[in-house]
Each structure stands twice: as structure tokens, then as C-alpha cells.
Amino acid sequence: MPSRPVSIDGYHLTIEQVVAVARSKTRAMLSGAAKRRMARSRAWVETAVRDQVVVYGVTTGFGAFQNVSIPPGQLRELQRNLILSHCAGVGDPLPEDVVRAMIVLRANSLAKGFSGIRIATVERLLDILHAGVVPVVPAQGSVGASGDLAPLSHIVAVLIGEGEAFYKGKRVPGGKALKMAGLKPVVLEAKEGIALNNGTQAMTAIGVLALHDAEVLADASDVAAALTLEAVKGKSIPFSPLVQAVRPHAGQAVVAAHVRAMVRGSKLVDSVDGDTSDKVQDSYSLRCVPQVHGASRDSFAHVRSVLETEINSATDNPLIFPKEQVAFSAGNFHGQPVALVMDFLGLAVAELGDISERRSAKLNDKHHNSGLPPFLAGRGGLESGLMIAQYTAAALVSENKILVHPASADSIPTSANQEDHVSMGTIAARKAAGIIVNVRRVIAIELLCASRGIELRNRRPGAGAVRALAALRKSVPSSSGDRALSHDIERAAGLIAEGEFSSILHTLHM
Questions:
Q1: DSSP state of 5
Q2: 296/387 same-domain check
Q3: Quick one: 117 and 249 in the same domain?
């Protein structure tokens, strides 16, 4: 059955709803309350235009041209020129789900009723979304203030019949895409161009999808750690509720509970064979899983709080306050809140990869894997086993060490020094999304190593581990000999992205 349409009212949009619109193509519709608010702010703009009130971006130029007055007969041209001149993005197009998220986020911001845009214009923006027209939005070119000018302008260009779009798998001119979809271009009226392209929706769209993926990845990280604990016959004591209670960070307790649920009933964890009887405690990459994974989870919670605020904010300029009969030119478009948490998100995800790679290294090292064969090879020497998979994990986490450098630490003046501090939030968001892709593959490698390690044992792991192994083996068959590993890694990474291991954890706690 199709999902219930998402109501766009400017105040109650959730991260899960954005993901549903972006990836599951759930419909989004303006609420009645939003339309009433939008009508009031639009009426104020039309009055200001009629009375020739000086309002930035409505009856004046933009940026350093703020003091140039624009005659009433040229206001449409002003808004069109704004969009076309700001279509200066470069690089590969942003993914379809990001562009779809940008559209619904921009519509939600406009729905708050502080932007002075016509209802029909926003409805046409949503029509593009529902018709499957995906504007081509180059990934590079935003400094994160005044918001995401170039990326948003590339979306608006298609709305007015310009630019480029993907439609039914083909990249075509924007006007042609609209025609193929049975839609007509919009003629922008006063204030509408600047209402559409001033905002943080590119960085926030990337960030919302990245956060969702990071939360799913955190579940897979817990599952992978539990499987490694099984494979090396590790200790359960570090995951005891008593340990977590005396350092009561929320994320730490969640991770410990996940691992306990995964290994419940295990004949491997805490077993004391000759090769492990003298081991009093495990190394940090196992013993400190609740503390490390938990800190990342707590970081994600902070990121979620900021993004939930941002997706329901008015971020363009100027803002129209019809009740007070004023327009304020301020700085809500500045991406600093998002920029900082995107750098934080990237760092928190990178740590999940760092500790996972160490566990994969442990599984491959005969001195630390509790009696498993070197590199988990069946015929060591003739076969290399999973030796090079760990190399790949090492390469990915090393790449992440470069990517975690904070983009938000930088600023560069633009617009003749009028816009003299910018956030670089979109760069931070893009980096975070790239780190997630890398770490997903690092966790996939640990899943491959841990699963082979468990299968080399002669004892049954915990019930949760059994389920995780069964899920993995549906996509990545077991092998007793060497084979190309790239496809195995990508298939395991695909399972992570699809939420397979999140589903297992959820059912274990029901």
C-alpha cells in the first residue's frame, strides 16, 4: 500500500519523513494552515511592491548590489536573473535522493509563512517532485552562506524551464523535462527567486540522509563487534549492565545491550579452552565497544537534535513578518549550526570504522585471534584468506583521517566582502556522507572476517549471531578457499545500507 502523504506545514516535518520522500517517493502536500500563513506573507510582499517600499532582494539588488533600486517593471527579470546567475555549480550531480530531500525541505521552510512566496509556486515545486523530474544539481559550489545559493538555484532553474533535469533515466534540458512530465514552467514574481534559493537545504538534505545512514551503520557496527566477540571467544563482562550503570552514558548502555542480546546463549563467548585460559581481559577494540560505539551514538543524537530544528526553520532572507508588518534582513541562511554537526557526524562515524578495522586486524592475526588460522585461510601459504580485505579496511580508515578535517574551521569572504564569514556546511555534509560510505565497507569487511572465524569454530554462537550469519550468507556465500573479495564486500555493505542488521537488533529487543 502507498504511504500516507507527508503534510508540509513548516513545523512538524521529521527526519524519517524526509527519508521517506527522498528514497521511498512518498508524496508531500502543503497543509491548509501552511497555505493560510503563506497567503498572509505574500499579501505583505505585494503591498510592499505596490507602495515601492525598499526591501532587500524584493525591490533592490542582491549582495553587494543591495543599494541598487529596481523599478517595478523589472522585478520579474530581477528574480529570473538571480536564479540564472546563481546556477554556477560544478562537479558531478548530487544523487537523486539528495535532490528530492532538498525539494521537500525547501517547501517545508517556505510553508512556515515567512518567505512571501506564492502558494502556487511551492505547489509547482512539489509537482516536480511527484512527477519524477529530478533537477541536475552540481555537488560543488556552495560555501554555506547565504545558504546553498548555487545548489538551490539549479533546482529553481528547472522550475522556470531552464537548467537540466533527469527524467525517466535521461538527462534533458529543464524545459523539456517539464513538458515530458506534463508541467508548465513558473514565472517568478517579486521575492520568489530569493525565497527559493536562500537557505540551507543542500547541506541539510545531505545531512539528514547521512544521519539516517549513520544510525543504521551504528547498528551494523554493534552486530559486527558481537560477531567478532564470538569468533575470538571474547569476554562478556565488559558488556554487563553493572558496568554501564556506573558510567551512565545513554549510547554506551544501548551498545552493551545490543551485544548482550546478540551473544545470548553463545557457546563461544566466555569459553575457556587451552588457548584462552590465561586471557584475563580482551583488548580495547572489544572491551571498549560500548564506550566507543556508544560515544558515536550519543554524537548522532546531538546531530539529530540540530537537524530536527533546522528542517523546520525559516532560513531565507529577508524574512516577512506579516503580523508585525515588517521585513527583516538577517542571517538565518547561515549554515553554521549544520556545518558544525556535519563535521561532528563525520568524526563520530570515522571512529566506528577505526575500531572495526582493529577488530578485523585481530581476526587475521594468529597472535590475537584465539587459535584461528592466520588470515583465516584454510591452507595458509597456498591461500591468503582475508589478508587483503584487512588492507582495504586500513586504506579506507586512513582516507577517513583526511576527510575528518573540519570544513567548518574554514571561511572565505564572498560578494565583495559583504558576505565575509561563511560556514562551508555543504562541504562538511558531503565529507560526512563520504565517510559513511567508507565505514560501511569497513564494517562489511569485519562481518566477512568475523563470520568466517565463527564458521571455523565447532560451537554454536548466540541466537542473534546465528541470525546475523544467516542474513549475511544469503548474499555472501561461505567459501573454504580464496576468491575475489570485492563483490563480497559490496554485497555485505549493501545489506548494511538496507538496514538488515538494524532489523535483527530490533527483533532481538522486542
A1: P
A2: yes
A3: no
The grid coordinates of residue 438 equal: 567508507
Specify whether the CB–CB gap between 293 and 225 falls below 8 A: yes
Beta-bridge mates of residue 172: 165
Residue 428 lies in a domain: yes
Task: Tell me if 28 is assigned to some domain.
Answer: yes
| Rounded distance between C-alpha atoms, residue 341 and residue 362, angstroms | 32
Beta bridge partners of 320: 327
What's phi and psi for 326, nearest 5 deg? -140, 160
The band of 493, judged by pLDDT with boundaries at 50, 70 and 90, is: very high
Alpha helical stretches, state H, 456-499? 463-475, 486-497
Q: List C-alpha distances in Å: 58 to 9, 80, 288, 323, 383.
A: 24, 12, 57, 19, 70
Last residue of a domain, one of 178, 199, 220: 199
Q: What is the pLDDT of residues 230-261, one digit of tens each?
A: 999 999 999 999 999 999 999 999 999 999 99
Residue 276 has pLDDT above 50, yes or no: no
65 confidence band (pLDDT: 50, 70, 90): confident
pLDDT band at residue 278 using 50, 70 and 90 as cut-offs: low
Among 437, 431, 455, 152, which residue's Cα sits nearest to residue 317? 152
Residue at 1 is within a domain: no
Q: How far apart are CA 87 and CA 408, in angstroms?
A: 23
Query: What mean pLDDT value characterizes the chain?
Result: 95
Q: How many domains does the chain have?
A: 2
Q: How far apart are CA 199 and CA 314, in angstroms?
A: 8
**Domain final residue pick, 150, 175, 199:** 199
**Which residue type is seen at 482?**
D
For residue 60, give the CATH number of its domain: 1.10.275.10
Within 10 Å of residue 16's Cβ, how many Cβ atoms?
11
In the numeric block, the cell 529553481 is attached to 156
Tell me how far apart the alpha carbons of residues 246 and 314 are, in angstroms, rounded to a whole number. Answer: 42
SS3 sequence of 24-57 = HCCCEEECHHHHHHHHHHHHHHHHHHHCCCCCCC
By annotation, the residues acting in catalysis are 56
- The proportion of the chain whose per-residue pLDDT surpasses 70, expressed as a percent, equals 98
Residues 49 and 12 in one domain: yes
Rg for the chain, CA atoms, rounded: 26
Grid coordinates 549471531 are at which residue?
Answer: 465
The sign of the CA dihedral 358, 360, 365, 369 is positive
The answer to whether residues 178 and 288 belong to one domain is no
- Report the pLDDT value the prediction gives residue 72, as an integer from 0 to 100: 84
Residues 224, 104: one domain? no
Are 207 and 309 contacting, i.e. CB atoms less than 8 angstroms apart? no
Using DSSP's 3-state secondary structure scheme, residue 278 falls into coil
Note the Cα 483 to chain centre separation in Å. Answer: 33
Which three cell numbers mark 348?
Answer: 563520530
Residue 84 lies in domain: 6-199
